[in-house]
Amino acid sequence: MPQYWRVAGLSYLQYANVCAEYVRRVLKEPERTKALSRAGYSMIKATWKDGKVASRVTLESALLDDPVRSISAAAAASEKNNS
Predict the structure, then answer these.
(1) 3-state SS assignment for residue 83
(2) Which of 26, 39, 52, 73 is buried most, with the most CB atoms less than 10 Å from its CB?
(3) What is the residue range of 69's domain?
(4) Exposed, middle or buried: residue 55 (CB in 10 Å: 0-12, 13-18, 19+)?
(5) In this structure, are 1 and 11 located in the same domain?
(6) Are residues 55 and 22 in the same domain?
């Protein structure tokens, strides 16, 4: 059985973050508000070349509101930097 997160091009950490975000969103109040207040994080995508950071992309907090959009944005930025 394939690991679907790998097929989608995600690392396990990205997959776990997406799952955690969706779990937080389906909680009922007041637990949802508590969970969302603890869920702050930022995402930086770095590409390494010859032992040094070749490019770094910081995703905006607006993109982090939607995990799928943030992963798509990271992939698009990575492709843009590699070309």
Answers:
(1) coil
(2) 73
(3) 42-83
(4) middle
(5) yes
(6) no
